[in-house]
Amino acid sequence: MNIAVILAAGASRRLKGIDKIFYKIRGKPLIFYTILAFEKNPQVNKIILVVRKEFFKNIFSLIKKYNFKKVATIIKGGRERQDSAFCGLKSAETLGAKPGDLILFHNGANPLISQREISNVIKAAKKYKAALVAQPARDTLKKITKNGFILKTIDRRNIYLAQTPQVIEYKLAKTAFEKASEKNFYGTDDVSLVEKLGRKVKIIPCSYKNFKVTTKEDLEVIEKLLEN
């Protein structure tokens, strides 16, 4: 069984009052497109939505309106993104997740993930236990001092920008999140908890269209891409 955990409990602080998951594009909220991507993929069996409590009513209405059949449960998010992901993982256990099953952690604000990318990262995670989609860095990277001066130029040939979904075999994910919780360790993404265990994580290159909306400019780009 493959379970997608869609994380949409963020506060959208950088959007100055705009809640990105409900931002309307072509008459539908952004989160609709994210859910639809996993609803359509034949390898995804169930979907868990992790949202803020005050949005439960809106999300229930959305699920009913668009007849999303794979959404198994809607749960409240935690204080930080990692806490929300852990809540999603615990919910997967109540849905019957077993060792060998895969958990797909995905940002609710990444609506342009393709079917091919979902399938490819699932395939890699089945083989390697942990995998994520990521974009090859295409700009020159500079490391700077505290005062803003260039310290050195970083070779970008082996640098990737992490995106989602990040897919982890259930038993490994459970161990990684529980260890992180015990040590009060917060990673910058889901697979960093697996890295902390000393385990290898496979990268699957993805399109530059698959990015997380964080600014108003991002919303404008997403809007144009979806309209086209």
Q: How many helix segments?
A: 7
CATH topology: Spore Coat Polysaccharide Biosynthesis Protein SpsA, Chain A
Q: Tell me the helix content.
A: 25-40%
Which structural class do you get from the secondary structure elements?
alpha/beta
> What number of structural domains do the residues give?
1
Largest sheet: 7 strands, mixed
**Percent of sequence in beta strands:** 25-35%
Q: For the record, what is the CATH homologous superfamily label?
A: Spore Coat Polysaccharide Biosynthesis Protein SpsA, Chain A
Order of helices and strands: EEEHEHEHEHEEEEHHEH
Radius of gyration: 17 Å
At CATH level 2, the architecture is Alpha-Beta Complex
For the structure shown, list the relevant keywords:
globular, Spore Coat Polysaccharide Biosynthesis Protein SpsA, Chain A, two-stranded antiparallel sheet
Describe the structure.
- The protein has 228 residues and is an alpha/beta fold.
- Helices cover 36% and strands 26% of the residues.
- The protein contains seven helices and eleven strands.
- The strands form three sheets. It has a seven-stranded mixed beta sheet, sandwiched between helices. Strands 2-3 form a two-stranded antiparallel ribbon. A two-stranded antiparallel sheet has the order 8-9.
- The longest helix is centred in the middle third of the chain and has 14 residues.
- The protein is globular, with a radius of gyration of 17 Å.
Q: Any chance you could write out the topology, listing elements then pairs?
A:
Layout: E1 2-8, E2 24-25, E3 28-29, H1 30-40, E4 46-51, H2 56-66, E5 71-76, H3 81-94, E6 102-107, H4 115-128, E7 130-136, E8 141-144, E9 150-154, E10 160-169, H5 170-182, H6 191-196, E11 202-205, H7 216-227
Parallel strand pairs: 1-4, 1-6, 4-5, 7-11
Antiparallel strand pairs: 2-3, 6-10, 7-10, 8-9
